[in-house]
Amino acid sequence: MTDPVRMTVENGLAIIEIDNPPVNALSQAVRQGLVETVLAADADEAVKAIVIYGAGRTFIAGADIREFGKPPMPPSLPDVINQIELVSTPTVAALHGTALGGGLETALGAHYRVALASARFGLPEVNLGILPGAGGTQRLPRIVPIAKAVQMITGGGMIGAKEALELGLIDEIAQGDDVRAAGIAMAERLVAEGAKARPTSAREASAIDAEDFAKMQAAVAKKARGLKAPVNCMKAIEAAMTLPFDEGMTRERELFMELYNDPQRAAMVHAFFGEREVAKVPEIKTGAPRDIQQVGVIGGGTMGAGIATSALLAGLDVTLAERDQEAADKAAATVTGHLSGAVKRGKLAQAKFDAIVGGKFRTTTDYADFAQADLVIEAVFESMEVKQDVFGKLDKICKPGAILASNTSYLDINDIAAMTNRPEDVIGLHFFSPAHVMRLLEVVVADKTSADVVASGFALAKRMKKIAVRAGVCDGFIGNRILNAYAKAVNGAVLAGASPYDVDRAMEEFGLAMGLFRVADLAGLDIGWASRKRRAPDRDPREQYAEFADRICEKGRFGRKTGRGFYIHGDDRSEAPDPEVLEIIEAERSGKGITPREISDGEIIDRYMAAMVNESARVVGEGIALRPLDVDMTLLNGYGFPRWRGGPLHYADTVGLEKILNDIKAFQKEDDFFWQPAPLLEQLVAEGKTFASLNR
Q1: Which residue of 461, 493, 586, 616 is most buried, as measured by CB atoms within 10 A?
Q2: Angle formed at CA 97 by CA 93 and CA 99, multiple of 5 degrees
Q3: Which of 420, 438, 471 is the last residue of a domain?
Q4: Are 510 and 568 contained in the same domain?
């Protein structure tokens, strides 16, 4: 096996190359190699400067994920970086690709830094429920302003080379694209200038007013919403500002280990790996993705415009169809507005925007313009008749091999596919609103959908930078089916005595960004109402159906867009509880003979989670979701479930499946029809197994 770290000495320079494909991760062998080569270079009197760079496409993209969960092996990364920093020979880190996490921490241990213009930098550890534990929280505040250090460490995002230079994070942006040559050029210049080693640890942390820092701490804690890692990051940064370096490193390690041993880290790691594992579906092994370059979108409303925007941002050619020219013009304005927003946020270059609006995007009122499309996605009204009519027309117009996709949230893809002579080319691509922002894409596989069409759906998701989850056909697929179940449980809590505002408060304290009734108001109450009316003929008479949402809709109150729903919404986007909603609920309780009782926040969450886990177990047990992790990734990326809880089935494993089952049995006394334990849940409890055991 070739050494992943190699050193050559050329003209008085020790050139250390890290070559651990694909991303030069900091494995034990890399850490050991860095220590040995740096010490050897420092001991060689002929060596006047040291250059460290990465082979391949990047510098160091972080820790080696293959070592996650395993006992640590020396040397530790903090010791490696300390050793790099302490050598007396001036050391240059030459950076390209990404310097992330431990990679950036390693670069901070070097005395000087040069980067290619395309390089990017970040400390994303907070996204794994931990903090930069190899000196990142102590060294970064000694180089960049505190406010920027706070943003980078608690936000986990990346910055480019230009900003890094302005901040002082790097010393120079090299010309050209040869990172090795860039490192050598800087080292030769340093030698000629007689430059000395420049340990970052010897610097003072950037100055900031104590009151300003306290405000930053409060803002970070508020935004964290129960996540512990950002709060501990702030404590570590404070240590960099107030303690000598060695003591700050000790404090950083204490705070790191506190997070490492916390359940939140395990949940965040589960989410991290789950988002990579979820794309591994059977069809990818047997089907090759079709080439998709030209996309048609039918419907230019909120969803259709979002889908079109997402496709355009992914570099695809898009034709959007609407019923008439006025609607088409309105849709075009919406899409252009989304793209302009991307330019303002720095997500889209002005030149690319100009290219899109100048030729990549067009609208039409004639389906015949889809004749050469590789993929057509309908995003029309959620009506089986309407969608079947659309697919019947597309079947006659679209070329052989074109993929026909429905964005339906609930409807049976098999019934839609039956309207065509090519059911193998039909698939569900269920985007989440706003489609150009939300990361989740349910790839709904019908009975006759071919493997290459499924593979194409996952390839499209990857191109759009979305998390794709394979779903089978049922009412609501994975996400909305589970949503329907826990909404019933929450409605039951309201009938039993809680208010919608109690429910929202409890859910938000649990970690959701918005409670169920706030979300409903934001999405539009008419959407759920239409779905309930569609399912009404098949509703079991034994179901204890909550009617209060229907009564609100009957008054023309559909949420934020009409100014009233569960809340009263102001023009300034303010909201307030609506006393009339409470009257509607009380009238229903009275009519059903329900005596309301006090419902604690704890019971609200127990109901919410028991229903969610129970229906999730049915979804997995029936094969609608391939694995429990597919459910978790769906709820995390499409429904606002707190990431630091890992998803509903990871959470269930954490609290214990027996507790979940016992909660279901307790609620069964109130409603024996709804609270029926899922067979898979009962089986796992009986066998002493977890949902995680089914992910293997």
Answers
A1: 616
A2: 55
A3: 471
A4: yes
- Answer yes or no: do 229 and 112 share one domain: yes
Q: Which CATH number fits the domain that encloses residue 623?
A: 1.10.1040.50
Same domain, residue pair 461 and 502? no
Q: Name the catalytic one among 17, 85, 125, 238.
A: 125
Q: Is 125 assigned a catalytic role? A: yes
Q: What share of the chain is helix, strand, coil (3-state, %, to 5)?
A: 55, 15, 35
pLDDT digits (tens, 9 = 90+) for 176-204: 999 999 999 999 999 999 999 999 999 99
* Domains identified in the chain, total number: 3
Please confirm, yes or no, whether 252 is among the known catalytic residues.
no
- Mean pLDDT, to the nearest integer, of 641-670? 96
CB 330 within 8 A of CB 443: no
* Helix ranges (DSSP H) in 464-600: 479-496, 500-510, 516-523, 525-535, 548-554, 579-591
Stretch among 206-215, 299-308, 329-338 having the lowest mean pLDDT: 206-215
pLDDT at 549 over 80: yes
Contacts of 272 (CB under 8 A, 6+ apart): 127, 128
pLDDT score at 1: 54
Could you say which of 17, 85, 105, 615 is catalytic? 105
Q: Are residues 239 and 335 in the same domain?
A: no
Same domain, 563 and 614: yes
Is the pLDDT at 92 greater than 70, yes or no? yes
